[in-house]
Amino acid sequence: MADVGEKSPPIAAEANLFGKYELGKLLGYGAFAKVYHARNVSTGQSVAIKVVSKAKVMKGGFTAHIKREISIMRRLRHAHIVKLHEVMATKTKIYFVMEYAKGGELFAKISKGRFSEDLSRRYFQQLIAAVGYCHARGVFHRDLKPENLLLDENWDLKVTDFGLSALKEQIRPDGLLHTLCGTPAYVAPEILAKKGYDGAKVDIWSCGVILFVLIAGYLPFNDTNLMAMYRKIYKGEYRCPKWMSPDLKRFLSRFLDTNPETRITVDEIIKDPWFKKGFKEEKKLYLEEFDFDKKYENEDEGEEGENLEDEKSLNAFDLISFSSGFDLSGLFNESDTLVSSERFLSAEKPEKVMERVEEVARKEGLEVAKRKKWGAKLEGRNGNFSMIIEINWLTDHLVMIEVKEKEVNSGQGQETWKNKLRPQLQSLIYQPGQTVSGNQR
């Protein structure tokens, strides 16, 4: 995303966003998005808001990319990854409300001169902490470069821009990813070979290029002719400057290994003598966060792509995201998406809710086509519509019931839910002031 130094005010309609954020100067822009500095009206907190044009996204065929970026950023919570606070949407735009990195792009700092080996090591330790965390959660960035590394007010590194990221769910049966993406100077040789690649390995290659740039002040693989540069990358032809220490040259060679099978891994990186030097104990904690939390440990996609985990507890971010603006299925009004979604609270236990849902569904002639402990898929008699019911603990006393409807023949699903099922489930719906102390997990 291009950097903008001057103040470039947003249009008047966006200056006060939903009465919640005041948009300020333009920080940068890309093909279909602009990023503004903004202030939370109620708290005064600075945030960055990426404003995405729906029309440009749909015209360019990037609808799936935006949905995936939101999905990925929701699951990442790490000291060295830019946080996504919330997503809001209007008919024409999508707004990513993110953590504001006051220090700007790391690229801007490098362009003023190379870093010392010690400073490079410090930022590289933070980068590997974030990348290792992502990989442990099945997320591969695929576009790591200094322009996508920001600095906060404490001059600590923050990884951003997950627009080209991939999830482990995208891996084909051969165990590899196949989408060609990335920035030319940072792309791994196996991507150029077009035979499939390991997402973690290509991120590690990019990290090696970044480390080289931090210390040398220039790219290891560079040429005015793009194909000539690609040949250098494919053959692994680069030269280290004379001021690099022998330990660092050896370390770098493990990253810029053209054979992904022998390329260094995250586990090997954090044990390397050059990397470990000056590595403070509190920073090691970031590297020990690699285990999946319970929310994503056994994430299992249902038949239609909706998550039907047996048991889920919702974290604070999930609570924020229970707004119509965060319903990804409705972001672009595609014809082949869930046509409607409704959420409501209940003070009843999940088991009782599911029992009642099944009872009502069968009474109305619906088939319980797929059943899990706290979720079910309901289908119309002729397969003309389907519904996904999901139940999650919201607090220790309340559960959230989410109903998603998908039409085949328009109208029947919504009518069945609104006029037949929902009225019979009314007694389950939590009312303000209702006593809930008896329902506790």
From TrEMBL:
Question: Where does the chain bind ATP?
Answer: K50
Catalysed reactions, semicolon-separated: L-threonyl-[protein] + ATP = O-phospho-L-threonyl-[protein] + ADP + H(+); L-seryl-[protein] + ATP = O-phospho-L-seryl-[protein] + ADP + H(+)
Which is an annotated Pfam family here?
Answer: Pkinase
Q: Name one GO biological process term.
A: signal transduction
Kindly list the cofactors needed: Mn(2+)
CDD domains reported for this sequence: CIPK_C
**What region holds the Protein kinase domain?**
21-275
Q: What SMART domains does this protein's entry cite?
A: S_TKc
Q: Which GO terms describe its molecular function?
A: ATP binding; protein serine/threonine kinase activity
**Assigned EC number:** 2.7.11.1
List keywords of the entry alphabetically: ATP-binding, Kinase, Manganese, Nucleotide-binding, Serine/threonine-protein kinase, Transferase
Q: Any idea where the NAF domain is?
A: 309-333
The entry sums up its family as follows: Belongs to the protein kinase superfamily. CAMK Ser/Thr protein kinase family. SNF1 subfamily.
The entry's protein name is non-specific serine/threonine protein kinase
